[in-house]
Amino acid sequence: MFGAHAATALALVDSYGAVAIFAVFALEGALVGKVLPARTLFVASVVAVGVEAVAVLPVFAAAVIGATVGQSVVFTGVRRFGVDPTSLAIVPIGADRLDGTTRWFDRWGLPAVAASNAVPGTRGWLAVPTANASSVSAPRFAAASLVGSAAYVGALLAVGIAVALGFGSVLDLLGPEWAVAL
User: What is the pTM of this model?
Assistant: First the structure.
């Protein structure tokens, strides 16, 4: 099942490029995309486009901006419309997790938003308590989200480049007949 989702996501990236990366990361940022393989898709995209800065920059920017937009949508939805994303079955966050993130935000403030966005598994979770329990403005929240997402995607970019360079080295070791076959 996961393989089919990954294959579909890679086909979308092959067809639509950075726009597909933006969409996947926006869904992940909006907490509904946790079922999509965003990390795997990003690393595979970096491997596919190569390690040149000109090729990787649009993929990097699409991921960071997409995650920030997704989280800002959740923040605005909670703040302005009283939406409770945790009540949706597609959002994998329970009330117990929100209590912990609320305490984290109460203690550290906006730096907690940036830090949580840089850590896999907690990305985007502070959007709900920040919107509910603080007077943080949407632009300040988006800025903190952007900083954390840039750190996270930067780490993924380093992994993607390492994989791309490693994959190239393996092909060099195997010889030109294997490179043609792959």
Answer: 0.77
